[in-house]
Amino acid sequence: MAGNRSNEEATSGLARQAREPSIHQLRLFLALADELHFGRVAARLFISQSALSRQLRALETRLGVKLFERNSRAVVLTTAGEALLPEAHAVTAAMSGVLQRARLHARMVTGHLVVGQCGADAALPYARTTLAGLRRRHPGISVEVRSLNFAGQISALNRGEVDVAFVRPPVPPGIQTLDLATEPRVACLPADDPLATEKQLTLAQLADRAVADAPPEVSRNWWDYWTVNPRPDGTPVRYGPTVTDIEALLATIALGEAMMFVPASTKKLFPRAGVAYIEVVDLPLCGAALAWTPENRTRPDIAAIRECARRGIVNGRE
């Protein structure tokens, strides 16, 4: 008995489902209600008039009401047809919303992105714009910002400890980058250095100052760039104590043991007692970039942050 009842309920459910109008039929109904002309609606929707008529008759059968009065001269909505218009509009609009939301989620990138920074570069405008754009356009990606030392900005990428990094070029071969910004470099001197009271300096004035050194795992090409070694006249730099990160560098400078050339933004990001930042008139600009390894280039989350970085560059130039 119970089995028979279940079969009857299933059959009844299928019957009810079969009588439900399709979204396609409702859209045809709305189109004809708007035009009240079979020929124009059929041409607009690229179907034959006979196919349009069949679909609308099927819709009337499923709904159990007559929607249109037809004769050789005119098509007129019935009272039932008029009454069903608001609901038909609501149903088709709701389905359009469902499809749009589904397409949005199908395109949505998800994942966890570890972003490296050397110093506090993630706080600079180009990085904030990039990360804000990523959060807005791809809310399914969570972001973790990880601070790196001088050696780590590249080695962490190569080891997969970070997925992308805000770096200070030059970068070694095998690392891909997107240039984000340029800015001046300044001299970072001990505050009690006689030159620390000057408004501007030249490289020649700093020729006899010891410059902080980096540990062996840091690329010498990168460190030579940042220490301007050799100087324009060919003189090699005299190195002082070794430092591994920005905080150690600033502490060493504050103790009067060395100096360094740093991006001008360091003055805002790292104000410190005991150090002075002075403009150097003949020091070339430095750059900032987003970096990743070639094997990760096509990863959806990395492609997403690259695209957000590009949008930030374009918007910043407009």
From TrEMBL:
GO molecular function list: DNA binding; DNA-binding transcription factor activity
InterPro entries: LysR_HTH_N, LysR_subst-bd, WH-like_DNA-bd_sf, WH_DNA-bd_sf
Residues annotated as domain HTH lysR-type: 21-78
Gene Ontology CC: one annotated term: protein-DNA complex
Keywords: DNA-binding, Transcription, Transcription regulation
Keyword Chloroplast among UniProt keywords: no
Entry keyword annotation includes DNA-binding: yes
Matching PANTHER family: HCA OPERON TRANSCRIPTIONAL ACTIVATOR HCAR, TRANSCRIPTIONAL DUAL REGULATOR HCAR-RELATED
Family: Belongs to the LysR transcriptional regulatory family.
Protein name listed in UniProt: DNA-binding transcriptional LysR family regulator
